[in-house]
Design a protein that fits this description.
There is one protein chain. With about 170 residues, the chain is mostly helical. The chain has one domain (about 25-145). The protein has four helices and no strands. It has helices at about 25-70, 70-90, 95-115, 125-145. The chain is rod-shaped and about 75 Å long. The protein starts with about 25 loop residues before the first helix and ends in a 22-residue tail after the last helix. The relative contact order is 0.16. The model is unreliable at about 10-25 and about 150-160 (pLDDT under 50).
């Protein structure tokens, strides 16, 4: 090479960083958002299940007291109270809103990771991790959304004394 020409930069095997921002959405940022989403779902599920488990435990204690006291009305009272509390819990239990909050948090975290990235520095692995996480989480979010109380058709449980619908 002639002495008056500048030397090309040394090839380090790494893509040239064209900005001062970090290269690509960090695999760790996407992974953290992914993991947090599923941890949030588990926490929501556990909270809901814990409430129903507590209702069951309270009912078992009330039944045990009824048996111990031999009070004929105590069992009926325990059963009626359990049914009322259970119905209240079912009406109040709407984890769909919490599932949607977890999904919104996930999307926000991924958006931040992408916004901080230099798109020219995204490699195939970065794109594979990102797309796999997006596909997995979006499918799960869709299933969680469909599991909610959004059913608008006729109730599958007929009202007492109502005439059943004609067979199809």
């Amino acid at each position: 090479m002639p002495p008056d020409q500048p030397k090309p930069p040394a090839n380090t095997g790494q893509p040239a960083n064209r900005s001062s921002q970090p290269a690509g959405p960090s695999h760790q940022q996407v992974m953290d958002a992914h993991n947090k989403y599923f941890q949030d779902l588990a926490s929501i599920w556990n909270t809901t299940q814990q409430r129903f488990q507590n209702l069951q435990t309270d009912f078992e204690r009330d039944v045990e007291k009824a048996v111990m006291t031999q009070d004929p009305n105590a069992f009926q009272t325990a059963q009626t109270e359990f049914q009322r509390r259970f119905q209240d819990a079912c009406m109040e239990a709407n984890p769909v809103g919490s599932y949607e909050d977890a999904y919104r948090d996930y999307k926000s975290a991924v958006q931040k990771a992408i916004a901080a990235a230099n798109v020219d520095d995204l490699n195939f692995t970065d794109m594979a991790h990102l797309s796999q996480s997006l596909a997995t989480v979006s499918q799960m979010a869709m299933m969680m959304r469909m599991s909610g109380p959004s059913f608008t058709g006729p109730s599958p449980f007929p009202k007492e004394g109502a005439t059943p619908p004609p067979p199809r």
